[in-house]
Design a protein that fits this description.
The structure is a single chain. The chain is α+β, with helices and mostly antiparallel strands. It has a domain at 30-100: Beta Barrel (OB fold (Dihydrolipoamide Acetyltransferase, E2P)). It contains one helix and seven strands; from the N terminus they run H-E-E-E-E-E-E-E. The protein has a seven-stranded mixed β-sheet with strand order 3-2-1-6-7-4-5, with no helix packed on it. The longest helix has 22 residues, at 2-23. The radius of gyration is 20 Å and the shape is elongated. The protein starts with a helix and ends in an 8-residue tail after the last strand.
Length: 108
């Protein structure tokens, strides 16, 4: 009986800890794919491929590229397809890298 109680308590604690582990997203890189919905200073609003809205912050460490070409933040335009690697820091999403889609010539 005592052993069953201990097992039940341990299982209950484990179940209560799962949401904490899932919600702890800080400290590792996340990736978002989508299109730029807006650019306002150091904020870039993204509509992700799954329809969610995401705002990431740019800083001096953020790199912006299109293929092998390194660009600055002025290249970010509404409607561009992008891939963003970001980290959550102080409840803000900080962009590390932004990759703009490479535009290819249309086939005839």
């Amino acid at each position: 009986m005592k052993r069953q109680l201990v097992v039940a308590v341990v299982m209950m604690i484990a179940v209560m800890m799962v949401p904490v582990a899932i919600g702890a997203h800080g400290g590792h890189v996340h990736k978002a794919l989508g299109t730029i919905a807006g650019v306002q200073g150091a904020h870039v609003e993204i509509k992700t491929t799954d329809g969610k809205a995401l705002t990431v912050m740019l800083d001096k460490k953020t790199t912006v590229t299109r293929g092998a070409e390194k660009l600055d933040a002025t290249a970010l335009k509404v409607g561009e397809r992008i891939s963003v690697d970001y980290m959550e820091m102080n409840k803000m999403m900080m962009a590390q890298t932004i990759k703009l889609a490479v535009v290819t010539a249309a086939r005839k």
